[in-house]
Structures are given as structure tokens and as C-alpha cells.
Design brief:
It is a multi-pass membrane protein. The chain is mainly α. It has one domain (about 35-145). It has helices at about 1-50, 60-70, 80-85, 120-135, 135-145. Helix 1 (about 1-50) crosses helix 3 (about 80-85), helix 1 (about 1-50) crosses helix 4 and helix 2 (about 60-70) packs antiparallel against helix 4 (about 120-135). The radius of gyration is 24 Å and the shape is rod-shaped.
Length: about 150
Amino acid sequence: LLIYIFLIYFIIFFYFFFYLYILLFFYYLFFYIFFLSFFSWRLDLKDGLALYNSENNIGLRNAWNIIQAEWKCCGVIAYTDWHEALKEKVVPDRCCQEHYQNCGRNSTNMFWNRVSFVLRFCFTASHILAATTKQTPYNDLISFRNNV
């Protein structure tokens, strides 16, 4: 009788920890993929900022202008992202709260500075960049897997 009780407890214990292990594995896997793709997209977006002034990327420039004007935001995380990308302390004119020509060159202007837009911006802009650079989250995962 004690052997049967021991076996029953062992089986319950084993299944409990087995299912807990499986649950934690998929939980970890989901968040690992989510954060990997989120940070990868953010880096891709920051790389896209550097292409803003290039002559061959008018579509990308227009996409940035539309997004920043409609969402009242500037850069990927903050307007200082443009300083890093453009290698000078300027931002596109669409970053200005009061829009006029060359307002982005005046450092005393008020620029849109929203942090809360990051998630929806990354989601939408990643699709824009995916369309312009043929880059997808699947390709990011494959390239990450090949580099490990």
C-alpha cells in the first residue's frame, strides 16, 4: 500500500513539474522571440534614420515625415536619435511642434518627444521598413540562429 501511495505521489509530482517545465519553456521562448525582434526592429529603425537624407530613399523620407507628423513624435525613442543618425544637432522639420521650413535646425524649438508611442511606432514602422528593405522578423530570427 505504501508503494502505491509513493508511486501516485511520484507520478503527480513528476507530471506537475513536467508541465511546469513545458509551460516555462514556452513562456521563455515567446518572450525571447518577442524581445529579440523588438530590439532588432528598433536597431533597424535607427539604421533607417541614417538613410533619411540620402537621395535614393525618398519613399523612406516620406514615410518618416508622415509618421512623425501624424503621431506627433520624433525619432525612434526621442528626437536625439536624429542627432546620432545625421551626425549633427538637427532634426527633420516634421519633428517641430510649430512646423515651418528649417525649423529642425533651430535648437531652441520644441520638438515632439513622446516615449509612449514606441511600441506602436516600432510595429508600424517595422512593416514600412520591411516593405522597403525586404526585411522581416522571420529573416531576423534566421540570421540570429545562423550567427549563434
